[in-house]
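In practice, a research group might receive sequence data for several interacting partners and want a quick structural hypothesis before committing to experiments. The following worked case mirrors that situation: the sequences arrive first, and a predicted assembly follows.
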Amino acid sequence: VSDPEVGRPPRPPRPTRAVTLDDVARVAGVSGKTVSNVLLGRGGVSEATRARVRDAVEQVGYQVQHAGRSLSSGRSRRVAVVVPMLYQPYFAALAERLILALAARGYSSTLRIAPDAAAEVAAVSGATTSGVDGVVVAPLWTPVEELGRRASPRRPVVQLGGVGTSASDRVVMGEREGALAAARHLVETGRRRIAASWHAGGLRHPDDERYTGYRQALLEADLPVDDGLFVTGTDTNRRLSGYASTVALLSSGVEVDAVLCVNDATAVGVLRALRTHGRRVPDDVAVTGFDDTPEARFTTPALTSVDPRQDDMVATAVQMLCERMDGLEGPPRSVRTGADLVVRASSAPR
Amino acid sequence: MRDVAALAGVSLKTVSRVVNLEPHTRPEVVRRVRQAIAELDWVPNGSARALRTGRTGVLAVAVPGLSRPADAALVQAVVEEAERRGLQAAVEPTGAPGQRAARLRAVVSSLGAAVDAVVVLGPHGDALAPLRPGSPVVCVHAGGTGPAGSTAPVDAVGSDLAEASGLLAHHLAVVGRSRTVLVGCERLTGEGGGLRAALRAAGAGAVAEVAPSAQRREDGYGAVDGVIAALRGDGADAVLCGSDEVALGLLAALDARGVAVPEELVVAGVDGLEEGAFSAPSLTTVSLSPELLARAALDLVADRLARTAPPQEPRRALVPVQLVRRESTTRPAPR
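A structural hypothesis for the assembly, expressed as tokens:
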């Protein structure tokens, strides 16, 4: 008489019913629709309710289901890279560098172009990026605080650039230092009426570090911060925007001897507008950009710009993400990278 | 479907439009519907089309790299066109030449599971050869041998480079030039491009060729000595560049060397990059119309998903190009 259990493999654990959205809704005491709104990062839900839903998701171990999601619970060694657009050379270069740096660590990438805040949140929350181990996002439309909150607790997110403080790991670009260096350079080379060609939205936000750097240099030199010298275009990531805002500035009768631009794309439009309106660069007006895109070396004249050390930013972001994907716990980290002024002919002294 | 509509907060008609890839639905709404479908794990029933297209709502876009602005513009156009039709785009980098074939095979192997269809940008070697004819895969050739040279058993679209050659040659003749230097023009002098013949026919034959494989701004900048030699030695009066990047690099170098464009030399490129509208002088170019390429590619994909095209015949579509006349060939730039 033998023990009937001997010689048999251990019995597999009984399959349990899959946790559904309804379970989350029941635990959180809200409707399924509300759970869905929270998981998809839509607005119209109070912070208290959002917190309740997130707690319930944790408690019942709910996983958002997606067609095509890897069935294994193992890691995919795949990372989502999220940028707002590719027509702005800064973001195309950033995406390319992230993809290469991740490949060097043995991760494949999938890239999402997020043309608005909803798409950005959907990529960070996982709604459009199922099956990845982590996310690197260069935020543009959503404040970094908000994006950090939308991150899934089981999937690390690192943010690159952006404005504000975050609940996720973050690389902070040397925006203030860079703009400060560019503005000081203009002051030191004798420019006194320095216009700023800027973002259309979020004017002079207290967290706008590039604006803070520009302003600081003017104050240091006892130059007035003149609202008439602050111009904005429709889409700061398009060259046309810098062109249009400069034409408006010149036709308003305001005289300037320098234009400090929020980025290179804007600066390229500004260069063209100055030339077609009879201003010589740099003799009449100096121009500086920000990003040091490949285009900057080949404009006429070549564009003075700020190199945000994209390689450093990328290496830091990938390092932080890999540490998190390897299980590192702890509070969100924030690493500042530097910026270097690259002086070219567009700001040569007169 | 009612549940999907309720969860997404839209009408049944809107869900149907999204599932059937009809245009004219706002991307934000399309995303909401797709998310609701994914969340409810809903499989649309009815037509074969709905079954196939409703599965994942994801279009993979395989791209070799993003560092070239023309490539980035094409990816952007394909992603926007996909979203317009209710497909979410997953851009899949296929990386350096060594790993490209393996990455491409991985992307197409996710067909039917993680993605509904694949758009392949750039060269693909024989990585697509094992595909079943009629697969929802389309190759986009912005340059090179064009779609006619594609060896894959799937649909392909490409720019009409012969038309590009003809437009450039004719334009040089119209602005009174007769002796042309070619810089980085490999993509137009090869099969399917016919640039040399087009120039001869227009009376603006090539007198010199510099750096035929030049591609980037640096290459164009570095080609300036050869171009100036042709100007002084061969009486050249025009330069055609195989890409806008090369042309923009050359414009910067010619300015540094004091050669007046367009008075001494006219310069034209190919691509239609946005930055060519802002250079000094602004750049005459042939736009390869990334939006049209994207639309043609997505039309072919939609037909495959709907199974309205005979599967055994891979289709080849040529997309027209457009001459954009600017200062570098037509008039002195304002000084």
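Before designing any experiment, note the following. The CA atoms of residues 333 and 339 of chain A lie 20 Å apart. Residues 89-104 of chain A form the longest helix (16 residues).
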